[in-house]
Amino acid sequence: MKFIKTPLPGVILIDPHVFSDSRGFFFETYRASLFAENGIPDPFVQHNHSKSSKGTLRGLHAQLKHPQGKLVRVLAGEIYDVAVDVRRGSPTYKKWFALTLSSDNFKMLYIPPGYAHGFYTLSDIAEVEYKVTDFYDPDSELRLLWNDPQINIQWPGQQPVLSAKDAAAQSLAALEPFLPVYTTVK
User: What is the DSSP string of 105-117?
Assistant: First the structure.
């Protein structure tokens, strides 16, 4: 497994070694000791799975009281996956990083606590699973506007399908007083 740093501190691209032959493939998606050696020491406590149709945008989400690190991978299809630094005072505050994750490229993305996360479905359907380092807490959920001009994410689609909650998300300016203060990422 290769652990590749991104421009955002703590956001790590994981490129697993895939063993393929005429029968199919096998690869290791997680090994605690290897992840800890590469800057991802927190245990995962919840495992989530979503299915989305083409053009669906989920996000941008984070949790305030129970921030989650997320290990994201695609089981079927293809997504444009985005992490945004929402830690006030961070050198990369308001910066974002994105890449395509797919069932064909096998890549995974680790997004540490203190970042908002979202994805846009590129294929007809996409099944995404993600492990998280803290339990979901609906009372501390932060929903950041997907097209906030302060962040200016270059999404592949400009008319996404949104949930009612994501359509009602707030701007960074409105959320700023509630955002976490920067601390170094492990």
Answer: T--EEEE-TTEEE
